[in-house]
Amino acid sequence: MLKREEIRIRDPFILTDTENQCYYMYGTTALEPHCLKAKNTFSVYRSKDLEHFEEPKIIFDGSKVNFWADRDFWAPEVHRHNGKYYLFGSCKADGKCRATHIFVCDTPDGEFVPLTEKPITPEGWECLDGTFWVEDGVPYIIFSHEWKQVIDGEIWAMPLSEDLKHTIGDPFMLFRASENPNVSPSASGAYITDGPFMYTENGRLCMVWSSLYQGRYLVLGAESDSLKGKWIHSGSRFDFDGGHAMLFQRLDGVRMISLHAPNKADFERPFFCEF
Which of 203, 194, 208, 85 is nearest to 144 (CA)? Predict the structure, then answer.
């Protein structure tokens, strides 16, 4: 077994399995030493208590199939939809834009396969950190349009078919990073949008996402009446250098937040607390 503090991971995503009384932790795990580059596998860690984890199990290996991407397998999320488990993960290859691809499996820790030949995010766009949301019965992918292409990073939404295999409408922008006054540009002058995750609270549509403020990685908030509504922004949730967060229900029903901290290569660890 591995202790939580022994696991190097970025973007930790927790799926709670109430039937088997356990948790599955996904994230950016194929990391290379001393940097944020990653290889081409997605893995899962299984735990009973969020402190002790089984050895990781590879659930997708891009080198074993004819897959378009060969590196930087980042930020996988697994969502249950219509009785199946769908993994949304960011991938990259030379000459191709970073994109979110959707994979599918019958179980949360089985062998995932690509749902389609091409990634789901718009062709020609540098995109990452796709997440899943259903509004008024329509599935959506929510994703970051990367600062490397647009300078002022953006969060977009795009409606999907019920089987998640194709789009059923044009993408639309929710907001830009600079609209939140708690965000400052990076050393290159770019504004970052990372890791959107959706939830509802008191009848409002809410989001946690991450960016930078004076060199520190943050968990920020935003809320709206709907995806196409006006987004109201709030400041940092924590006073330490950590981010790319998501929310989950603990087995005892307590709402938790998961993120990695610190945001420093080699030292990233999963962090959980009540939210």
Answer: 194
